[in-house]
Amino acid sequence: AQKITQTQPGMFVQEKEAVTLDCTYDTSDPSYGLFWYKQPSSGEMIFLIYQGSYDQQNATEGRYSLNFQKARKSANLVISASQLGDSAMYFCAMSFFMDTGRRALTFGSGTRLQVQP
Amino acid sequence: NAGVTQTPKFRVLKTGQSMTLLCAQDMNHEYMYWYRQDPGMGLRLIHYSVGEGTTAKGEVPDGYNVSRLKKQNFLLGLESAAPSQTSVYFCASSKGGLGSNEQFFGPGTRLTVL
Lengths: 117, 114
Known about the structure:
The structure holds 2 protein chains of 2 kinds.
Chain A: E1 3-5, E2 10-14, E3 19-21, E4 24-26, E5 33-39, E6 46-52, E7 60-61, E8 64-69, E9 74-79, E10 88-97, E11 103-107, E12 111-116
Parallel strand pairs in A: 2-12
Antiparallel strand pairs in A: 1-4, 3-9, 5-6, 5-10, 7-8, 8-9, 10-11, 10-12
Chain B: E1 4-7, E2 10-13, E3 19-25, E4 31-37, E5 43-49, E6 56-57, E7 65-67, E8 73-78, E9 87-94, E10 104-105, E11 109-113
Parallel strand pairs in B: 2-11
Antiparallel strand pairs in B: 1-3, 3-8, 4-5, 4-9, 5-6, 7-8, 9-10, 9-11
């Protein structure tokens, strides 16, 4: 069975500092994708970054980078130079094959990040 | 370009009532999904569709039905609402199956069943 674990229910970080949000996953599929989404208090889900299981390099998107350690089955999100607007809920998700042969996403329980001035 | 829209944004139902949530996307995406998000949890897939006229069950399909009569619309129905269906419902769409294709989410519908 596929599972995403986010062990940090809440995190605090000072503005302009970097923060790492943890994500570990469990799957038997050799091919999978890892996603991070941001959910601000307004409720919408915003895509941040994607890492494929066969990608050799860690994904980066602006201030976001994904620290992918395949052997450890971890896909931590690193946010550099935190901003007040980064305060939100962050979800790690993984794509997996369902019985139908189609992929779907399974989500972790999320980490609430609060950026302090 | 509105992206993914959902109606209504909020709804309160009594146990046993029925309702339909509408999701619309204007990106010509083939795949559409319905999720529910309960407090303290991530999203869980209810049903999904890989194209017009097709639907399939996700992780938590019981108590819900869906239809995809038009490519741009994906409807989620509750035939007889139960308090356990109180949740925030998100619709999403993607260009293709999930590889690197990101899912674009709607703003969510907050449903309360009394």
